[in-house]
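Bug report (template v2)

What were you trying to do?
Predict the complex of my protein with adenosine monophosphate.

What happened?
Run completed; filing so the output is reviewed.

Input:
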Amino acid sequence: MTDTLFGKIIRREIPATIVYEDDEVLGFNDIAPQAPVHVLFVPKNEVIATLDDVQPGQAHLIGKLALAAAAYARQQGFAQDGYRIVMNCREHAGQTVFHIHLHLLAGAPLGRFGTPAG
Ligand code: AMP
């Protein structure tokens, strides 16, 4: 597996607070949370740098990440209150770790998004 920071977390080589795991997806708390709940969901078995690099044959992975986030939200009891999922792609979105991951943000009303950085 290509080495990335998240690869090290998947292999338990560096610590993280893991909150979700199934055969294909690992979820762990973001180290710099932007909301009361901020979990990152990553594919465990494939390293893909950005959403733009996902091939058609890998499309199911995106669905797996989203459904893992939804399952976690239900399990934690905030699905009805609501949440947001985000995947940053490259520079203008502020992507910093080039191993695709889905952000799950929840736990309070969230501000709007998508405005150009000031
Ligand atoms: P992005 O900017 O979309 O690439 O998201 C990368 C996320 O990884 C950021 O929200 C960081 O706070 C988070 N992050 C960086 N290092 C760690 C780490 N060691 N454990 C958990 N989250 C991390």
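What did the reviewer find?
The mean pLDDT is 96. The two ends are 37 Å apart (CA to CA).
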